[in-house]
Specification:
With 271 residues, the protein is mainly α. It contains 9 helices and no strands. Helix 5 crosses helix 9 and helix 7 runs parallel beside helix 9. It is flat and about 60 Å long.
């Protein structure tokens, strides 16, 4: 049942990504509705998969890269659906769903065995720390997509190519404001994730900070997004600079998420 739910979600996300790319080149209200319908249905199956894995594991099923990548995608879709409901951002799905598909495909090829937590990780802090981190990273993923949309729209404006896609993308001001709001959501969540991780580390290993690679890269990511907020509020950096920094920041998120696990030794290898 768990496998069937995951495969159904993957299939529906694949279809939604294909439709979202079609919408980018020649979209209509019909293609937009189809894409959203496929995404919502895929999200329902994805939620069922996570619930079944939770019941089988006895904890949030994010131990191991398969479960972590899958849950990361689930958080991205959750925030994406909220943004669509709240703001109806034109063509956002065309920049988010392909990214979700890539992450889901990476999850699909990774070992799916449910990893049991070691005794030191069996703490209520596990759920609090990881959910905060994944939700914050999901906000950064959406900011990444919005940042790319901003750069594309800016290109149209500067080149005076005011064709069909220009009119279907949100205005530069709207994209800049949404990018800022997403980072103001993600950064406090990442801050809380780091704080809860420090508290948890002290109770689990007897030290607040071990300079573990994932801790270091999480701190680097924190500083990048802190810099985004700082230069926006103090130096007035907006628009293109903020969009580029949000893209750079998400690259750091991806390296923290995948790179550290795959090429470095870390006590956080369970995620």
């Amino acid at each position: 049942m768990e496998l069937a739910f995951f495969e159904a979600a993957l299939t529906l996300y694949f279809a939604a990504a294909v439709v979202s790319i079609m919408e980018l080149f020649k979209g209509t209200k019909t293609t937009s509705r189809i894409m959203m319908g496929l995404t919502i249905l895929g999200f329902a199956f994805h939620t069922a998969n996570i619930i079944v894995r939770y019941v089988n594991a006895g904890h949030i099923p994010i131990a191991g890269l398969h479960g972590a990548s899958s849950f990361f995608c689930w958080c991205i879709i959750l925030l994406f659906l909220f943004l669509e409901y709240r703001y109806s951002i034109g063509l956002l799905g065309s920049f988010i769903m392909p990214m979700v598909l890539v992450l889901m495909l990476s999850s699909a090829v990774l070992p799916r065995k449910i990893e049991q937590l070691s005794p030191v990780l069996q703490s209520y802090w596990f759920g609090i720390h990881t959910v905060l981190a994944f939700t914050g990273d999901a906000a950064f993923a959406l900011a990444f997509g919005v940042g790319i949309m901003y750069l594309l729209q800016e290109h149209f404006v500067k080149s005076k190519h005011l064709g069909g896609l220009f009119h279907r993308l949100p205005s530069l001001q709207t994209l800049d404001e949404i990018n800022y709001r997403l980072i103001t959501i993600g950064w406090p969540l990442l801050t809380l994730a780091i704080i809860t991780g420090v508290i948890w580390a002290e109770s689990a290993w007897g030290t607040y900070w071990r300079w573990d690679p994932k801790e270091v890269w999480s701190l680097i990511t924190w500083f990048i997004y802190a810099a985004v907020l700082h230069v926006r509020l103090i130096a007035g950096w907006r628009g293109r600079r903020a969009a580029i920094l949000s893209i750079v920041g998400f690259c750091a998120v991806l390296f923290t998420f995948f790179g550290v696990n795959l090429i470095m030794k870390s006590i956080h290898s369970f995620i």
